[in-house]
Amino acid sequence: MIICPWCGTNYMVFQSNCTNCGGIIQLPPVTAGLPVSNDEIPMPPPAPRIISNNYVWRLLSTDGWSIAAFVFVLLGGIFSLVGAGLTIGVITAFVGLPFLFFGLVLLGSGGWVLNWRVKETQEIVNVLRVGEAARGKILEVQKNYSVQINGQNPWVIHYQYPVNGETFQGKVSTLNPLGDAYQTGKSVWVLYLQTAPQRNSIYPHP
């Protein structure tokens, strides 16, 4: 079975690009006629790597901040419409104005957070496309019990990696089940921006 390293989609037959997220799928290396263990993560291919723009939305769909912001925007829109409708009727203006004010606050705060998360996610995709590769190490793997998405708590992977003699740290979260390759103490490939090494992501993004 072939697994897309970007979104986890399974394929029975190899194909070069994932039909779900557009990410590159590497042909599994073969040693002595046998596939290499799934615990061995291949080195990232040279940049630029083909990552679909749709992958931004896939990452946002599993991000707790983004989901909360979307709910705020939705509720803000509803409250604003109801408040505006009530305010137009002069008799019910004293009821409509609080609804309108509360709705605008929800819209503003939710929109700000959503915009922030979209930019952060676009940065992750940019790192996956053009980032330099470094060999890193997983420091800790834990579940985030403060966030629940579709009845699941996301895994948070903390890791570190060296760049020009300096050690940087990063973290990624995922709802996908973690195999042996993503356990504490394991070596992983980390992609980072050469001009901003603090911008990083594990490759492949779990």
Description:
With 206 residues, the protein is an alpha+beta fold. The protein has a domain at 64-125. The protein is built from 3 helices and 9 strands, in the order E-E-E-E-H-H-H-E-E-E-E-E. The protein has a 5-stranded antiparallel β-sheet with strand order 7-6-5-8-9, with helices on one face. A two-stranded antiparallel ribbon has the order 1-2. Strands 3-4 form a two-stranded antiparallel sheet. Helix 1 (54-60) packs across helix 3 and helix 2 (64-88) packs antiparallel against helix 3 (93-130). The chain is elongated, with a radius of gyration of 22 Å.
In short:
This protein is α+β, with helices and mostly antiparallel strands. It has helices at 54-60, 64-88, 93-130; strands at residues 2-3, 10-11, 30-31, 34-35, 132-143, 155-163, 166-174, 187-193, 196-203.
What distinguishing features does this structure have?
single chain, 206 residues, alpha+beta, five-stranded antiparallel β-sheet, two-stranded antiparallel ribbon, 34% helix, elongated
Which helices and strands appear, and what pairs or packs with what?
Layout: E1 2-3, E2 10-11, E3 30-31, E4 34-35, H1 54-60, H2 64-88, H3 93-130, E5 132-143, E6 155-163, E7 166-174, E8 187-193, E9 196-203
Antiparallel strand pairs: 1-2, 3-4, 5-6, 5-8, 6-7, 8-9
Helix pairs in contact: 1-3, 2-3
Structural class: alpha+beta
Rounded to an integer, what's the Rg over CA atoms?
22 Å
Tally of helical segments: 3
Query: Biggest β-sheet: count, sense, barrel?
Result: 5 strands, antiparallel
From the spread of the alpha carbons, the general shape counts as: elongated
Distance between the termini: 17 Å
